[in-house]
Amino acid sequence: MKSIFRNKLAVACVAAAASLGFGARAHAETITADLVSEHPLFQGAVLSLSSSSVSQNGDVIGQLNWVGSSSNSQPFNSTFNTYCLDLIDGIGIGNTYTFDVDPALSTAPRAAAGGPMGTEAALELQSLYANRFTALSTDDDRIAFQLSIWSVVYNQFGQNMVDNAGLNFHVVSGVDTTALSEADNWLAAAYNAALTNTGKFDTNVVALEAVAAPGTGDFAQDQIFVEDLPGNGVPNVGVPEINSSAAGSLAVLLLGTLAVIESRRSRRKA
Prior knowledge:
11 strands, disordered N terminus, 33% helix, alpha+beta, six-stranded antiparallel beta barrel, single chain
């Protein structure tokens, strides 16, 4: 999907993440893929981002379809589809792009946070995928799903409407009421799930972070992806991801517990 915006948001987000103590992100792999089609080919929408009009005439608000290089690992070595994580950089059919696969969604760049996605937004996105993704069947569904993703990325936690002119990201015109209503309802449900940490969360969702084209500072749009799963597409319902500091604390706690158990065993033997 093309956009009139071109900047280095991804670089800025990485720098912000480092300054906040998140450090460098660990990527599972780097992939290349050709963008072959868009669904739907949607014309006429006007979006607003930070009070700047973003015309989407002739471009897509919906699903992007790719053919991955045969040298990529599965599932990126064949056809796959994504939705856009960002609305800043451009992307176009017939071009080849390179992405770093980030399996920890919470560390992907998020404009509204000025740094990494964070746990709350990651949970909202995982909830959207767990509860909506496999049921997307109409153009309105796909448009609503993409708008919901952009709302999570660009609006603050709890700002659950895509057509509210007072929000950083919102739809100005050109999107029918069915898609707008779907997006608002889906966002409200995802927010409640993240807030209470209840419901289904699809932990297979990953971020595809665009790599700058060689010799340039131009980035393509970051993407969001989940692998089609066995069992008629029922999402994997897992434990929401734990941030690194929490994981470290848990590891220390477990080690301490094991030390206490071993100490008690030693005293009994004595």
